[in-house]
From TrEMBL:
Lineage of source species: Bacteria, Bacillati, Bacillota, Clostridia, Eubacteriales
Source species, domain of life: Bacteria
Record's protein name: Uncharacterized membrane protein
TM region positions: 16-39, 51-76, 88-110, 122-144, 150-167, 179-201, 221-247
Classification via Pfam families: ECF_trnsprt
Gene Ontology molecular functions: transmembrane transporter activity
Length: 252
């Protein structure tokens, strides 16, 4: 009994240390500007990546705590370095709720994908591929001046599916699970923040950026595409190797 209490205490301490460390990294990225990567014509943020990493390696509560710190920092930044649209993040519902849910969604997507991959690795791979193919389809239509139709999307999807199914790697299961969790966790933040902006501040936001209120919805959706897709892809590329390395260390 005493041994179990000691083990439980050490686990709780470790979770708190991980939450504090990753929260500090997220805030550091924001304060230094390193949390933003220029991908013309947009800037993609990586400040949410510590939330996803913490959620996957230590569970949804740790992920939610890191997300809470990320959200609180957003409020602090909105007040201390205001811009014409800073009023958005003065609202805790927009600043905090989506960031907390990044961790929760990322963990449960990872856990669900891990189970699915073990039982039906090819089907899980196809699901992950469908997600990436859809994102690439949207990205091509937005970022490149070319015509992208359903046939091209289907070809890309089939080719990526074959690559994923034939892909041989000792960590294939983890790559699929972590990658899918990273992408959907990132899109959770993007969709919730922008969705709440539209529901609560559509007219005020339109005035702040000097666009007609009638097109505010389309403008917000455009931001979601141009920011959300690069952020989701960068998130997967960064999170996969980091989490795999941490999980290997934890096993030792």
């Amino acid at each position: 009994m005493e041994k179990n209490l000691v083990t439980s205490s050490s686990l709780n301490t470790r979770k708190l240390v991980v939450a504090g460390m990753l929260s500090a990294i997220s805030i550091f990225l924001g304060l230094t500007g390193l949390g933003f990567i220029a991908i013309p014509p947009v800037k993609a943020t990586i400040m949410h990546i510590p939330v996803i990493i913490g959620a996957i390696i230590e569970g949804p509560i740790v992920g939610a705590i890191i997300g809470l710190c990320f959200g609180l920092f957003s409020i602090y930044q909105a007040f201390t370095t205001p811009t014409p649209t800073s009023f958005i993040f003065w609202n805790p519902i927009i600043a905090i709720l989506p960031r907390v849910l990044i961790g929760v969604v990322s963990y449960y997507i990872y856990a669900g994908m891990s189970k699915a991959v073990k039982k039906h690795i090819n089907l899980a791979g196809i699901f992950a591929t469908a997600t990436v193919s859809f994102m690439l389809f949207i990205a091509l239509k937005v970022f490149l001046p070319i015509q992208v139709d359903g046939i091209l999307t289907a070809i890309v999807f089939i080719l990526l599916s074959v690559v994923v199914i034939k892909f041989k790697h000792t960590n294939k299961e983890k790559v699929l699970s972590i990658g899918t969790a990273s992408i959907l966790g990132t899109l959770t933040n993007t969709a919730l923040v922008l969705g709440l902006v539209y529901l609560i501040y559509a007219d005020r936001f339109a005035k702040a950026i000097n666009v007609s209120p009638e097109i505010a919805g389309k403008f917000i959706a455009g931001i979601g595409i141009t920011n959300g897709i690069p952020e989701a892809l960068i998130s997967a590329l960064v999170t996969i190797p980091v989490v795999i390395a941490i999980l290997k260390i934890k096993k030792k």
